[in-house]
Design a protein that fits this description.
This protein is 88% helix and 0% strand. It has helices spanning 2-22, 24-53. It is elongated and about 50 Å long. This is Membrane protein. It comes from Streptomyces wadayamensis.
Length: 58
């Protein structure tokens, strides 16, 4: 099982390097989309925590 994880990680790294080298503009777009997703998730968690702190009232 550990060997399979190593192979999978190696394939992911090779794929990421291939995408970056073959099309850097698209790779930059993917990174931007990833950071936007993380930012949106953090914002949603913050909104939820605010809602909880307010007693769950709308």
């Amino acid at each position: 099982m550990v060997q399979a994880k190593k192979v999978a990680l190696y394939l992911v790294v090779v794929f990421v390097l291939y995408v970056i080298i073959s099309d850097p503009d698209t790779a930059g777009d993917y990174v931007t989309m990833g950071f936007e997703g993380i930012s949106n998730a953090a914002s949603a968690v913050g909104d939820f925590m605010t809602w909880i702190a307010n007693g769950g009232n709308s």
